[in-house]
TrEMBL record, chains A, B:
Descriptive protein name: Acyl-CoA dehydrogenase
PANTHER family, sorted: ACYL-COA DEHYDROGENASE, BROAD-SPECIFICITY LINEAR ACYL-COA DEHYDROGENASE FADE5
Entries under Pfam families matching the protein: Acyl-CoA_dh_1 (PF00441), Acyl-CoA_dh_M (PF02770), Acyl-CoA_dh_N (PF02771)
Cofactor: FAD
Domain Acyl-CoA dehydrogenase/oxidase N-terminal: start-end pairs: 40-151
Gene source species: Actibacterium pelagium
UniProt GO molecular function: flavin adenine dinucleotide binding; oxidoreductase activity, acting on the CH-CH group of donors
Record-linked InterPro entries: Acyl-CoA_Oxase/DH_mid-dom (IPR006091), Acyl-CoA_Oxase/DH_mid-dom_sf (IPR046373), AcylCo_DH-like_C (IPR036250), AcylCo_DH/oxidase_C (IPR009075), AcylCoA_DH/ox_N (IPR013786), AcylCoA_DH/ox_N_sf (IPR037069), AcylCoA_DH/oxidase_NM_dom_sf (IPR009100), Diverse_Acyl-CoA_DH (IPR052166)
Length: 511, 511
């Protein structure tokens, strides 16, 4: 099997030159490369080697506590000691105060090395951001430093047995108590609901404070330990048996009068939760990119080594000498590079600030395209390996199983398509996207963007006039992706020479 | 989890009315329905319940012998006792002498119920066909009756570590010996290379009788037991750890001077083997159809029960009330119904005899489309179930894992695409296909077939003029599939009223 290799050159090229981080005043490309290199070395050397054994061993629930696979606690300790959880936290809370773009580097590398561990640790930045935005000064002072040091990990407790995509059905109840609030109810599909990595866990729980549908939902901070130091009334009732991500414990949890404190305003829990979810969604897009990149790496290495068939001169050739295999390898590479560029574009816009409508528009597009890129990349990669790809030995089958969830969680892709078609595209965020593509066309004139834009506008018009736009949602998302990709490939063609391997980038653009 | 339900009504409709079995003199539709109903009941009641436990338990290799999961031996005994292996074997060898179309019914149902067990038992009809065609009378008399009774199961031993898609690299050697031939070498990826279901196993082995590339390959019958009753020198050296099909032992085998007899002419092993492989390929197409149909069944049942979200009037609705979910369910249904129709078309042509060039043309098209239909159907089905789809509990994840191999084995899909583009389409089989589509257009006039045919002809022309047609192979296959599907949906629209649920068929055609 091919050891994990972080695609750090591709990532830096994409961020700096394609997505335009280089143009930001706050961005130090050399420093980013250094940090990225450090994290890549750590991920390759220590995190990735646990990916396969973690998949085989899985998590266990014993006496109400979850055990992670062997070695995970040790590597998490090193991760915390090296200060990785603190990267983007403001300095006043013990963080290193780096911009969010650094996170785009480490998050993708982490997911490629070990998606399961990334999931269990990956909600911290979103939790910090939520507390920074909605918490009181006292809450910030109490909760952020332990998240920064790695002492505490965070969870996001939304889903319930009857409430998946439709959060208005949340029944978990929060009632005022002597010590603040008391939460009672059941949550399911909670990643890292328990684990033995961090000393403490902070649950961000969406619970009902009144019967008023979505408006009756509030967000709570619910630590695993009460203020008096005793264990809070939060129980893990089971961990799910899944197709993949066996090293990420997916917990069913019972809150039985658990002590909690409100964060943000009562009845505005969904808005607060979305701060966390939007962060998680950007991460999920990068997970898709990471899987496509990993599939590309494994398949390319295999195809370059495996001799099979003969060339036009009758001499034996390697797999990558066959037109069909080359087509598949190029396609996987395009999925990874194209998806990454779309993700990075959104990250750079977020960092710039100011065009939040375009960010809103791009977030679901990146989530859908990148997660599909991961699935399609893993599928094609497995096809390149043939029968060997179906074996556990070559690891692509783990990529294939692990990446499948990305199209489902953090909003099923169909939900994102509907949001795009019914809420974002018809209004101002749609205008922002049209303006973005027009600007791209002005910078990189060409019929591909021009035609895509004309068709996209016509479809948007249709959408605005349709009695039920949700029927058009799937097709509209695909068209939006095509339009965005036309821009992205034009940008990549423009800056291909900045890549250490310009010929590869040009070949990808040429398709 | 939803118990397996054989889509017997859809199968009979497709065979009889869409593929035109009803027009064959040798076909007794009522009798076929009766046999199909019996097998469906057996599959639903006895075979399918072993599918999940078989996946969880898997196969074991102990002391050189393979153990199948619990219960598999018992259900195989019942299968043999009820005479299922004998269905299509001529009566003179103890069979029931039914036409090959019956096999299209039972094979799909079997794969839907338990793909693993179907694989281990499914090579018998192909082995019988190969022996009937290439064996001596003596070989027929000795080998066919035990295959018919179920006493013997068959394997197909082609692949070697260095010889996957490129069989010219086969190194396994056959040398004349006192008792016939002696085979020495290694084979990998042999389904059912050993098992504890049948008393005996007959290996059909492709081995080298001279150094002359493909022309140096011959086919051998290599029973697990020597003529003197001792165990033949065939050893299972390992069974593979795979992503799915855990109840199908994929064996690595060592032949160490194994006693064998030549079947057919020396140096013409590949042609003989292709008789078996073509049969296996038709079966693989049905496996894809079976998985798509199973995914459709599970997802439809779930979507009809699960309440989520609200309708335009504000009242809670089930998942299948959402436009996006309906789109996915319809798509899965179309994949299953469309794929089945293409498969059945080829089966009916085979049964008719006479147009072997069209059969040659359709075989790779059916293999590619139906296996992709299985993968896509499983993917969409899982998406409908959301997070629950990713759990082992709802079983779609097994469908997702099991069906993945179908696009790889029996000729990777890319190989079939190349064969179509470089060998079949440019020549007479391409003419046969064009004539078929023209006839379909004459019977069902419409712009969809007309446009598809015009474009297909233009692409074929391009193919014939291209210096290297293999570069165009993937796109050409997709276009051929689209053209064929246009014909198939026109046929289905024409006969929709013959289906027990005509509204469903019409809805599928309307898309």
């Amino acid at each position: 099997m091919k050891p994990f290799q972080a695609p750090i050159e591709d990532i830096l090229f994409s961020l700096n030159h394609v997505a335009g981080a280089n143009g930001l005043a706050t961005w130090d490309a050399e420093f980013a490369a250094e940090i990225g290199g450090h994290f890549a070395a750590f991920a390759e050397g220590e995190i990735a080697p646990l990916d396969e054994p973690g998949d085989l061993q899985g998590c266990r629930l014993e006496n109400g506590r979850v055990s992670m696979p062997d070695g995970f606690a040790e590597v998490y300790r090193a991760y915390a000691e090296q200060g990785w959880p603190s990267l983007t936290v403001p300095e006043e809370y013990g963080g290193q105060g780096m911009g969010g773009l650094i996170h785009a580097i480490t998050s993708e590398v982490f997911s490629g090395a070990n998606h399961s561990l990334q999931m269990v640790t990956g909600l911290v930045p979103g939790a910090v951001r939520t507390i920074l935005r909605f918490g009181t000064d006292d809450q910030k002072a109490r909760y952020i430093p332990p998240l920064t040091s790695g002492e505490t990990l965070a969870t996001m407790c939304l889903t319930e047995p009857g409430a998946g995509s439709d959060l208005s059905r949340v029944r978990c109840k929060a009632e005022p108590s002597k010590k603040g609030w008391s939460i009672t109810g059941e949550k399911i599909f909670i990643s890292g609901g328990d684990q033995d990595l961090s000393e403490r866990i902070l649950h961000l729980v969406l619970a009902r404070t009144s019967d008023d549908g979505i408006k009756g939902l509030s967000l709570f901070l619910c630590p695993c330990t009460r203020t008096d130091g005793s264990r809070n009334s939060v129980t893990i009732t089971r961990i799910e048996e899944k197709m993949g991500l066996h090293a990420s414990p997916t917990c069913q949890m019972a809150f039985d009068g658990a002590e909690a404190e409100l964060i943000g305003e009562e009845g505005k829990g969904l808005a607060a939760m979305f701060t966390m979810m939007n962060h998680a969604r950007a991460d999920v897009a990068l997970q898709g990119v990471a899987h496509a990149a990993r599939a590309c790496d494994i398949a390319s290495a295999y195809a370059a080594e495996r001799t099979q068939g003969r060339g036009p001169d009758g001499a034996p050739i390697t797999l990558d000498g066959h037109a069909d295999v080359r087509r598949m390898l190029t396609e996987i590479d395009r999925l990874a590079v194209g998806g990454r560029a779309i993700s990075h574009l959104a990250f750079v816009l977020m960092e710039q600030g100011g065009n939040s409508e375009l960010v809103d528009f791009l977030t679901p597009v990146a989530k859908v395209f990148c997660t599909e890129a991961g699935m399609r990349g893993a599928e094609l990669g497995m096809q390149v390996l043939g029968g060997y790809g179906y074996l556990k030995e070559y690891r692509l089958e783990q990529t294939y199983r692990d990446c499948r969830i990305t199209a489902i969680y953090e909003g099923a892709n169909g939900i994102h398509e509907r949001v795009l078609a019914t809420r974002l595209a018809p209004g101002h965020p749609g205008d922002a996207f049209a303006a973005f593509v027009e600007a791209e066309l002005a910078s990189h004139p060409g019929t591909r963007i021009e035609n895509a834009l004309t068709e996209w506008k016509a479809s948007r018009q249709q959408l605005q006039e349709a009695p039920d736009a949700s029927i058009l949602a799937h097709g509209f998302m695909q068209q939006t992706i095509d339009t965005l990709l036309a821009c992205v490939w034009a940008r990549i063609a423009w800056v291909a020479d900045e890549h250490p391997n310009p010929a590869r980038m040009k070949r990808l653009c040429d398709r």
